[in-house]
Design goal:
With about 280 residues, this protein is α/β, with parallel strands linked by helices. It has one domain: 3-Layer(aba) Sandwich (Rossmann fold). The protein has 11 helices and 11 strands. The longest helix is centred in the N-terminal third of the chain and has 42 residues.
Length: about 280
């Protein structure tokens, strides 16, 4: 009897052990497929003159790639989706300011927006200030955006010449309720032709050149105006003024009470009242 029980126990152990091993193999296979997908995307991104870095430059490990693959930001289909463009040498504040504003929950702790970053490809990007960043989505797998935010770099030459970037803004603009540019991001708006006849403002000192290059825009006096709204198009001088465009839009999408709530989290009153 004892011998029979021992045999039965051995068989069960082998059976369940094999089942668990097979389960682990399936999980590992799925993870490897995700990793391979991200790795292929990274490998396809070669360094260029704007400072883009490839996988080889950063020596990303398998574990790091797995982490990136697992952490693609979830989209809640019941919430508006705000997409912020990312590329090399982007001015950090123009990307982080809208994230700072729109990622804040309501007073009762509810998420109000999907806030995602989007780049042409999966790659590591470096801001003008040196911050290393990895996008949530690419042009190829980006969801439809309710709001697109176009930040800037000090030199927009490569961005303006990037047809994929220009076309992506054009296509998404067909879906958006609002299209926002900060600083020299107005140059990309001009290049797309989507805001002809609309008021727009750019970085302080950049208005004359913007008007010359895109005569169909109604470029405002950037020495006096920090923020402009014309229909679905909003624009700001950029840098910290990016908070202005984000907060103005936040109030439109929610209400003044929620804007004040977010401003309190940002300690905006401390900044406004600060004196050396």
């Amino acid at each position: 009897m004892k011998h029979s029980l021992l045999i039965l126990l051995t068989v069960c152990t082998i059976f369940f052990g094999c089942s668990e091993q097979k389960k682990n193999e399936n999980i590992e296979q799925a993870t490897d497929e995700q990793t391979t997908s991200v790795a292929d995307s990274l490998a396809s991104c070669s360094p260029n003159q704007t400072g883009s870095y490839s996988q080889t430059d950063y020596n990303l490990s398998k574990e790091e790639l797995q982490s990136l693959a697992k952490n693609t930001k979830h989209i809640d289909s019941n919430l508006p989706t705000i997409g912020i463009l990312m590329y090399d040498k982007v001015l950090m504040t123009e990307l982080t300011a809208p994230m700072d504003v729109f990622a804040k929950h309501s007073e009762d702790g509810k998420q109000l927006f999907n806030v995602i970053t989007i780049a042409e490809k999966y790659d590591l990007f470096t801001s003008e200030e040196g911050l290393k960043m990895f996008p949530d989505y690419t042009f190829a797998n980006s969801p439809k955006l309710d709001i697109i935010i176009v930040p800037s770099a000090y030199d927009m030459t490569n961005q303006v010449k990037n047809k994929n970037l220009v076309d992506f803004i054009k296509v998404q603009n067909e879906n958006t309720d609002y299209t926002i540019s900060n600083c020299a991001g107005a140059t990309l708006i001009g290049e797309t032709g989507i805001a002809e006849g609309k008021k727009i403002v750019t970085w302080i000192g950049g208005g004359t050149e913007l008007q010359k290059n895109y005569p169909n825009l109604k470029v405002q006096d950037d020495s006096k105006i920090s923020f402009v709204e014309d229909g679905k198009f909003m624009s700001s001088n950029g840098n910290l003024a990016s908070y202005i465009s984000s907060l103005e839009l936040l109030e439109k999408l929610t209400n003044k009470k929620h804007r004040k709530f977010v401003e309190s989290y940002l300690y905006l009153d401390r900044l406004q009242q600060w004196k050396k």
